[in-house]
Backbone:
């Protein structure tokens, strides 16, 4: 029972970490801080504009695979994976 | 070969392919009809989800809207991709573990209540029908251009084709068909983008081309676009926010939450073999979606620049109306592009000043389809784009119609009113429901509330305000009870519908709007398309409050919640 509770806590911590990044790259870099970031340029892109139209999407993809991978490990560490019988 | 003949050929070939696959893998039992027997590989499922997801709104409409909104259009880019992060972490693996066919089934069981299930069905139908209206707009635009008829005629033809298409196969047909559709639509989207990026910047990858200098000059493409627009009196492309930063924030949030709450996307995650696969499936879906979504900003900016330079030519002369290119004439026939020679000099002027501007109507939804013609690309590329646009619109319309029909036949008829119906009767009911949904959405599509992507954004708001909070709390809050969930869903979608209808008209019939669709009447300057996030907030708040003052859920429900939180012991999706 506590095994399951630990697993759930670890999962919640991981979700909180991933969603913090999710929020920062889109809402913070793409919207809230877009004006100061736009003073920096990345090639022909203004940086804030780049995050809003390109960068945030790349980070989203990486985040999901990172989460899936870490959860796969957590499943095994806490012995709650699907392959056991 | 003429463009018309080439378009018939390419569209005909791709359709023959989809229909061939649908017949080959025709659904025979109800279980196949809904979830294709739960044996779809995560990569294949991701690709099919991407095709299902990327609709007329993404393919036909979004880049056109971004072209005219500039930076403000980022709400679509971030909103419609970021939702997958929420889906992968907050919903998909747990719903897969739960192992039921439909979203209302989960809500009905988790909240131990038929009422909750019925409320979820109603929310789902409202959101899905609105979504289909957006698809119908896109289908109408594509058919009107492709058959060279008026938009309304194109819409009627499109309705007929959607019906035949959706009724023909269940999800199994649709899963394999959608993989083929994904391939067609992604080629159709990226090939013209590569051509145009090469023409303008010499860089073949549009994601990089957008940040590069113009061919034969030291000026960056985006700087050039900002310059050209400000010369004409428009706001700068790269810094033009959509109304306000607050509105953009809420709009993006609404689209993200809505993505994770739309039944036709969630249902996809029931079809993977394992909980583990549900997580990675969401990742693969987003990979395939991101290919189009990171290309779209390039398409948008380059299309806007090309459009302006067709009219206000770089050498300083204006377009002479009598010598206008064929693509302009063709689009004029659809009624979606219009000019008015206000000063009678025979030349066309494009300007931010409505007194001077002579390009009086440019429907945003024509931009992606017209883009290769504007850039003077070969006929086969233009034909491919038409085929891709139709693939996108049809695949999503079919997926949504399946979600609507299964909600009615499986959740309402079999689950609540007539548990004794036979499989044949259930299938028949689902087909009748599909036909009815197409007629309703098509009818409302004659006067859509917004451009295709805007209409679809409304649907996301409705899903965000109703389905997502109920699902999330069902998993993450063991003490959420039926009273809280039902009150939350009703309050969330109620507030959102009220706000949308008072500005957009009841059932989007504009004449019934009692507050007018104008910024000064908007709450905190938030446009109706973006209001779903506020609705979701209301949903969470009401649900939490009500659950605190009513009886907690029974013990066995709390055990169910504990059980869905761990992957161990997941079986195949099962029916009641």
Residues:
């Amino acid at each position: 029972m506590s095994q399951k509770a630990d697993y759930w806590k670890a999962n919640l911590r991981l979700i909180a970490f991933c969603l913090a990044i999710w929020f920062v790259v889109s809402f913070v870099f793409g919207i809230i801080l877009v004006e100061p970031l736009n003073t920096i340029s990345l090639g022909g892109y203004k940086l804030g504009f780049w995050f809003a139209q390109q960068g945030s999407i790349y980070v989203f993809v990486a985040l999901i695979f990172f989460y899936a991978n870490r959860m796969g490990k957590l499943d095994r560490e806490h012995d709650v994976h699907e392959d056991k019988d | 070969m003429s463009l018309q003949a080439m378009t018939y050929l390419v569209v005909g070939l791709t359709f023959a392919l989809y229909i061939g696959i649908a017949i080959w893998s025709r659904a025979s039992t109800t279980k196949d009809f809904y979830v294709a027997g739960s044996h779809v590989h995560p990569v294949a499922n991701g690709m099919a989800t991407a095709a299902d997801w990327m609709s007329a709104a993404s393919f036909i409409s979004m880049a056109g809207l971004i072209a005219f909104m500039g930076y403000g259009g980022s709400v679509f880019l971030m909103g419609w991709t970021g939702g997958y992060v929420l889906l992968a972490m907050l919903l998909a693996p747990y719903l897969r573990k739960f192992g039921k066919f439909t979203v209302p089934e989960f809500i009905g069981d988790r909240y131990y209540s038929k009422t909750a299930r019925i409320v979820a069905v109603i929310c789902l139908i409202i959101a899905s029908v609105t979504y289909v209206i957006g698809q119908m707009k896109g289908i109408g635009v594509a058919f009107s251009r492709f058959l060279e008829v008026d938009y309304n005629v194109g819409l009627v033809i499109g309705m007929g084709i959607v019906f035949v298409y959706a009724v023909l196969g269940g999800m199994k047909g649709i899963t394999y068909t959608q993989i083929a559709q994904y391939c067609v639509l992604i080629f159709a989207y990226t090939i013209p983008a590569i051509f145009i990026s090469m023409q303008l910047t010499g860089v073949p990858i549009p994601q990089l081309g957008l940040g590069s200098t113009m061919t034969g000059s030291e000026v960056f493409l985006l700087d050039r676009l900002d310059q050209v627009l400000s010369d004409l009196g428009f706001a700068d492309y790269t810094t033009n926010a959509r109304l306000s930063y607050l509105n953009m924030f809420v709009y993006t949030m609404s689209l993200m939450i809505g993505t994770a709450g739309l039944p036709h996307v969630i249902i996809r995650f029931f079809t993977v073999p394992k909980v583990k696969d549900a997580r990675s499936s969401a990742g693969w879906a987003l990979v395939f979606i991101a290919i189009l979504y990171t290309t779209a900003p390039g398409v948008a900016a380059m299309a806007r620049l090309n459009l302006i330079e067709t009219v206000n030519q770089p050498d300083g002369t204006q377009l002479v109306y009598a010598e206008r290119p064929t693509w302009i004439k063709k689009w004029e026939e659809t009624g979606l592009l219009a000019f008015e020679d206000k000063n009678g000099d025979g030349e066309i002027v494009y300007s931010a000043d409505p007194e001077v501007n002579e390009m009086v109507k440019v429907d945003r939804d024509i931009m992606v389809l017209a883009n290769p013609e504007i850039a003077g690309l070969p006929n086969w590329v233009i034909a491919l784009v038409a085929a891709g646009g139709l693939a996108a619109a049809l695949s999503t319309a079919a997926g949504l119609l399946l979600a609507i029909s299964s909600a009615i036949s499986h959740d309402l008829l079999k689950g609540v009113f007539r548990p004794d119906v036979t499989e044949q009767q259930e299938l028949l009911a689902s087909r009748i429901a599909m036909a009815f949904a197409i007629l309703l959405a098509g009818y409302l599509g004659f006067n859509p509330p917004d451009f295709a992507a805007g209409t679809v954004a409304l649907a996301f708001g409705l899903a965000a305000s109703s389905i997502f909070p109920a699902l999330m709390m069902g998993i993450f809050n063991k003490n959420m009870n039926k009273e809280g969930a039902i009150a939350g869903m009703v309050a969330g979608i109620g507030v959102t519908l009220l706000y949308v209808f008072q500005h957009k008209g009841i059932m989007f019939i504009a004449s019934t709007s009692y507050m007018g669709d104008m910024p000064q009447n908007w709450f905190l300057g938030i446009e109706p398309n973006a209001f779903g996030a506020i609705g979701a907030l209301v949903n969470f708040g009401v649900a939490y409050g009500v659950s605190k003052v009513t009886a907690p859920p029974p013990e066995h429900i709390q055990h169910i919640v504990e059980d869905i939180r761990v992957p161990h012991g997941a079986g195949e999706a099962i029916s009641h």
In short: The longest strand of chain A covers residues 41-42. Chain A touches chain B through 44 residues (CB under 8 Å).
